[in-house]
Design goal:
Layout lengths: L14 E8 L2 E8 L15 E8 L1 E6 L6 E4 L3 E4 L5 E6 L5 E8 L2
Antiparallel strand pairs: 1-2, 2-8, 3-6, 3-8, 4-5, 4-7
């Protein structure tokens, strides 16, 4: 298996593939290409999430931070359980590939 090939067609929406799953832990590859959270929508999860940008870039807003967070290739971010957050934008010229690790708090 390879995280970069083949990439799914994301022209109609973001694609999330589970790479590994065990009780209390889930690892995902997320591929975005210009997608963002719908207007007014916020994620609020009951678990912690650690994200790493493998390619591309994204801008996230978290209610606990005064400014949006810009993430580029190699940047990572911990999103604690219960923190409302949203994806403001992802790259439009190239796919954004995320590695997301969800784990019980």
């Amino acid at each position: 298996m390879n995280l970069f090939s083949p990439l799914p067609d994301v022209s109609s929406g973001e694609c999330i593939d589970a790479l590994f799953e065990r009780p209390g832990c889930r690892v995902e590859r997320i591929v975005s290409w210009g997608q963002s959270s719908p207007a007014g929508f916020w994620y609020e999860q009951d678990w912690d999430e650690w994200v790493l940008i493998l390619a591309g870039g994204a801008v996230l807003t978290m209610e606990t931070r005064p400014k949006p967070v810009s993430l580029a290739c190699g940047d990572y971010l911990m999103i604690p359980a219960g923190v409302r957050h949203r994806v403001e934008s992802t790259e439009t010229e190239t796919p954004t590939i995320w590695l997301a690790i969800h784990f019980a708090k």
